[in-house]
Amino acid sequence: MLINRIFGFCVSLSLLASACTPQADWFSEYGEITPTEPAQMYGDMNGFGGAMQQSPMGPEFATQNIAVLLPLSGANAEIGRGIRTSVETAALQQPLNGVTMTFYDMSGTPTEKQTVVTSALATNPSVIIGPVFANDVRMVRSIKPMELPVLSFSSDTTAIGGGVMTMALMPTQSIETIIREMGPDGVRNMVILAPDTASGKLMAAAAVQAANIYDLPVSGLFYYTEKDTDSIKNAASRASMFTARSAANTRAREILSDILTREQLTPQEKSSLNRQLDKISKSETLGAAPFDAVLFLGGAADSRALASFLRYYGIGARDARFYGTALWDGSDVMRDFTMSGSKFATLPDMPDQFINVYEQVAGRAPSRLDSFGYDATNLAVGMIYSNKSQAAYLLDPSGYRGVDGLLRMRPDGTSERALGIVQTNGTDTPRVVRAAASNFMVPLYNIDQRNISAAREIPLISRGVNPSDHIQIPARFADKYESKTYGATMTTSPAHAPRADAMIVLPEDDRDAVTTPDFQPVALESIQRSFIDSVEIEE
Q1: pLDDT higher at 465 or 521
Q2: What is the model's pLDDT at position 196?
Q3: What is the mean pLDDT of residues 148-170?
Q4: Among 50-54, 230-234, 382-386, which is the least confidently predicted range?
Q5: How far apart are CA 266 and CA 334, in angstroms?
Q6: What's the farthest any 2 CA atoms get from each other in the chain?
Q7: Is the Cβ–Cβ distance between 194 and 201 less than 8 Å?
Q8: How far apart are alpha carbons 293 and 319 in whole angstroms?
Q9: What DSSP letter does each residue of 63-75 carry, written as one string?
């Protein structure tokens, strides 16, 4: 995982929206066929795109055209040129007899783009590769003939359909894959941290839906502003239940201090209380947060910052497992030792042969969008050379093996890609803990990608923290030194079973004070906190 493959996924993620109604399924009857083993995609002679097929020869094979619509100038030129390189690489690896390929620049104003699309359609193409962005994809869908297939790169489910398909990785699949992994890991409750964006809220909704499918309780859902340290810090504080756990810590220290300074104690009791006070004073929180897993739905940099603040607020590796999506792929998260042990869903590694060929042509490693472009080309050429109809070939329910692993197109325009699970270990090469599926004979996903609406925040669901659950005091003082529960949000109060040497009494207003004239409480030491990892904390 030595390349910037995350880029393509980031682009597709940013295109999510929920404003339009999806188009009707295209040749939906192919969605009912039972899948078998996937076919090798039309590809090169080196074996990384599949077995080379025989190109049709002779005058009886009419020349067919592939129109490629990409942003080749302007602000997004780098994206378009990267995909163009992969398209040309695929086309040049074997002679395309009877097939022409024409590139069109999808830049400029909407009117200029519409003129470009009209010009491309005038050539009567057999298939269109592209566009990249959702609005451009919608434009093509509105103009093209229904039967003309389009292999776009947008994962916006409102832009595809009606013969417009996508090569992109649908973000919901990454989410469902990693949440499914939490079950075997023994996760009991999770908290979700997501960017406060339109796409982030849809991703969060998908996570909640997946959690319901796999019977995994969600303890809370919190949003943060991307790249905003204060917002990230605030989200981590709320998710960690820091205020309540800090108040519980303070109250526990007060109880121990009060008993030590006011009451007559045996040497054994005094020693026990002093040990407890010393131990609690080394931390600023008491008790555990009501979750044992954190799902990060944002990019790598924000996820690292959130994890750092969570540790700052008392949620360490022993308290909760960390999980991420394909947005972590190729990022610094993999090399961060403080994130070691985290898991995320990802596409399989690209074959070295493809990476090497692409680097020789482009002078850089390919992104995921580039590899999607390579597979789109081989899929388009394979369709043209196939004896099947266009729809039968493209919508083969058994799918194909490309440079990004197992792939198939669905009649609704969405794509399905098989994802694996990797675990970070502080190196560039995370450990594969679950390989991607090798076929579609068992359904991989259950989320309906076209019926997801933005999710609201979910306040932390907790029974709260009662200091008396975490300290042991002589039973004869239980009535005198009561404590309330901090941070409880559940409708039923937590049950506190009495111990042999302590009694839990609910509740007490923590503002109550000892008023005897000869009582002087011991001053509590403050906890020194500065910064953790690379995220500086400013008090």
Answers
A1: 465
A2: 97
A3: 95
A4: 50-54
A5: 53
A6: 109
A7: yes
A8: 8
A9: -EEEEEEE--SGG
